[in-house]
Amino acid sequence: MQKDYLGLHLKETELMKSNKYLLTVFRMVPEKGIDLEDMASEVAAESSTGSNMRVGTATKFSDHLNALVYKVDKKKSLAWLAYPIDIFDRGGNVQNILTYIAGNVFGIAELKELKLLDMWIPPAMLKRHDGPTYTIHDLKKYLGIKNRPILGTIVKPKIGLKPKEFAKVCYEFWMGGGDFVKFDEPQADQNFAPFKKTIDEIAVMLKRVEKETGKKKAMSVNISAADFDTMIKRADYVNKKIGKYHPALLVDGITAGWMAIQTAKRRYKKNFIHFHRAGHGAFTRHESPFGFSVPVLTMFGRLAGASGIHTGTAGIGKMAGDNEDVIAVHCALDKVSKGLFFTQDWGKFAPCCPIASGGLNPTKLHAVIKAFGTTDFITTMGAGCHSHPDGTRKGATALVQACEAYQKGKTIQEYAKTHEELAKAIEKFGKK
Ligand code: CAP
Ligand code: MG
Description:
The chain has helices at 12-18, 36-46, 60-63, 94-101, 123-126, 136-143, 163-175, 195-213, 228-242, 258-267, 281-284, 294-304, 323-333, 365-372, 383-386, 392-407, 412-416, 420-429, and strands at residues 21-30, 68-73, 78-84, 111-120, 150-154, 180-182, 218-222, 248-252, 272-276, 290-292, 308-310, 336-338, 343-345, 353-357, 378-380. The protein is α/β, with parallel strands linked by helices. It has 2 domains: 3-126, Alpha-Beta Plaits; 136-429, Ribulose bisphosphate carboxylase, large subunit, C-terminal domain (TIM Barrel, Alpha-Beta Barrel), CATH 3.20.20.110. The strands form 3 sheets. An 8-stranded parallel β-barrel has the order 5-6-7-8-9-11-14-15, surrounded by 6 helices. A 5-stranded mixed sheet has the order 2-3-1-4-10, with helices on both faces. A two-stranded antiparallel ribbon has the order 12-13. Residues 154, 184-185 line the site of magnesium ion (MG).
């Protein structure tokens, strides 16, 4: 027990009003025999000013920066902790926040479970952070899209196509009517697919497709790299070669890290910053005892200034997910969002675009729109388009038709009677 970190007399409303604390809720399960209040005080110490015991070097000033446990629910194994925002790097640094509140604490020996379920960010702290600059609304405007999601794909196979083949897949998808193509998250600068050569081929196809269709098309290029300089070189090359097509810059936010996301955001305000979250499952899955929830990850993505972040498919696709994905969608988009415990007012913060991906196909589009309750999102369907019986182009067309059916208030089955590509997609992917 570290009583200097207990503030059970404090009221949440007062803490919020003070505008001085970041509030958090953790699911916290200590080893048998350890009281939750005691455990929470240890977590508060380790995640703010302290260690496993009081140190003689603490000052009156450092004491006032202690995180405080202001509530516990022993039955539900929940603990509420308030962090003075003065402890955080004043430069709007997401990496720094996570190093405190989702850092060493995951390694504390007496803990069996520790999951950051929700957080509330005070207005004074929001002010320090960037938030997105290039938003979903900018991308929709550029593409000329209203009242529907942005329809996308991921180039598949995940890796193995050579530059010309890669660009041809993009071209086919765009020609079929699709809007947006993304690199898969591990595509970088491989021997058989050099980065620059791949961009050069994409440039040729973008030019061609716009000439042939008269429509704007979007490309999301993975710029994640081993080091800062290489990432910047890649992003600069993308902007030099295809900048006029409003390319999105994809960053693997978990593996490349928060600094990579924030660097991209701060340097490239005219690009859509695409946060791919490969690796997040180790933290977010319900089976994982340690980590954070999908809504928390999403809120950090928005705070960091990602224009869009993967939020899952609410269990409709291949990845584990449930209603928390829907909560995350609204934490990304809404001005006032409801998390698992808190209501967050984002003030002037721009929205971050939810990206629904993973095991989707045209027959699942309506279910995703219904679950999300909005059309302000990007959906990317990889296998769901490229495995269409008649190929990528027809797969894209089937997706477009599923979307048209939605816009006309028809079921896909009804619409498929007069739309062959959709009919074949239904036959391939199942009747539902
Ligand atoms: C989707 C995807 C994405 C996942 C990641 C893939 O491809 O490109 O990486 O969506 O999950 O490789 O699986 P498919 P999440 O459309 O072929 O499934 O979006 O939940 O972060
Ligand atoms: Mg992928």
